[in-house]
Amino acid sequence: MEKFSYPNRCFTCAGCDADCPISLRTGALKPRSLVRLHVLGMTEALLRDPSIWYCIQCERCARTCPMNVKPSAVIRSARNKALSEGIVNPKFPEMLRQLRRRLQIARRQAAQDIFYRRIPVDPAQIWQEAETLQFRGNGLPVTVSTGTRLQSLKPHKRYMGNSTAVSSCWTCGSCSNACPVSENSDLFSPMFIIRTVNIGQDTLTARSGECWLCVACERCIDACPQGVKGAWVIRSVQDIALRNGEIPPQSYEIWRNVDSRLHSLFVDAVRAGLLSAGGND
Ligand code: SF4
Ligand code: SF4
Ligand code: SF4
Asked: Boundaries of each 4Fe-4S ferredoxin-type domain copy (predicted)?
């Protein structure tokens, strides 16, 4: 077990369950239960629990816990032990990495279809298409990523001087390196979103669908050497776009349902992958 993970301090308040993005979207991962299995010495059950592989290591549970327990570290240790004891095939982590990428491709495509194209979305079909590991591209009228055809280069006043410290960003990329969703930085990057805010293009990031991929874990906040509150900036972009009518509220509701469904498909695929990969024993 990693140092400073304090599983024995857990008093089962379930704060981690309530904040875990995978639990919120699927109900299939309960970090509190996994910590309990560890504390009760039920190691075999813990190592064979498929839900240890659903975790995206966002550390939200550790951030939430009032007792400084780190369920994410308990899960990491369980994964390592399951691999070293041959309960899970050593090839499985690479399969899992590809499934995580497939999830983010599917989410990016769905977010774009919902928020930008505003067309009906079938999560099962998008999940199938994402297996080819291609994102269909955003087809947006303004190309921010290449720096061409920018409509405005003025920082957006509505984010300036508030507690998000957004204008302090010096684009080091620490937030994107820490972000679990930005494991696929071609699909999502908090640094890029913060940059678009600082050049007055925040509406674009809301309309393109990108900012809706954030799972609000706040690892970007911990990682930033400049004190930028990336997660809060992204939340502000979302709130302002909804409040100003740039994004219809029904699009947001559709996104929440589709996002939950895509995460459930991810969980199903992880479980199936575990079975097909098998163990070494
Ligand atoms: S690290 Fe994130 S995904 Fe994993 S159990 Fe904790 S909150 Fe859930
Ligand atoms: S970590 Fe902070 S300074 Fe670095 S890119 Fe992200 S927001 Fe900007
Ligand atoms: S942008 Fe920040 S809050 Fe959002 S998923 Fe990435 S690290 Fe978490």
From this structure: 44-75
The class that CATH gives domain 7-88 is mainly alpha
Torsion, Cα of 181, 279, 124, 129 (10° steps): 70
Angstrom CA distances, 226 to 19, 198, 202, 217, 223, stand at 26, 14, 20, 18, 9
DSSP3 helix / strand / coil % (the chain, rounded to 5): 60, 0, 40
The percent of residues above 70 in pLDDT, for the chain, comes to 88
CATH number of 140-247: 1.10.1060.10
Determine whether the shortest distance from the Cβ of 166 to ligand 2 is under 6 A: no
3-state secondary structure of 163: coil
How big is the chain by its Cα radius of gyration, in Å?
20
As a whole number of angstroms, the distance between CA 281 and CA 108 comes to 38
Question: Whole-angstrom Cα distance, residue 14 to residue 173?
Answer: 33
- Ligand 3 center from residue 181 Cα (angstroms): 7
With a threshold of 0.90, tell me whether the complex ipTM lies above it. yes
